[in-house]
Amino acid sequence: MASRLAEIHKRIDDNRLSKIMVVLLRLIVGATFVVSGFVKAIDPMGSVYKFQEYIAALNLTSLAGSEVVLAFAVPAIELTLGVMLITGCLRRATPLLLLLMMCVMLPLTYFLAVTDAVPDCGCFGDAFKLSNWQTFWKNVALTIGLIYLLLHNKSVPCIYGPIIQWIVMLLTLLLSLAISYVGYSRQPLIDFRPYKVGSHIGSHMQPVNENDFVFIYEKGGKQHEFSIDSVPDDEDGWNFVGRRKVTPDLSPAQKAALNAFSIYDSGTDVTDEVLDSTANQVLLLIPDLDKVNRAYAFVLNDIARACTDRGATLTAVTSASQAQIESWTSLTDPAYPIYTGDDSEIKMLARGNPAIVYVEGGTIMWKRTFSSFPAKQLLSSNVPLARLSDDMAPSFQLWEMLWPYLLIMIALLFVNRIYPVVSYIVNKFKKPDSEGQ
Question: How many CA atoms lie within 13 A of 32 on its CB side?
Answer without folding.
Answer: 17
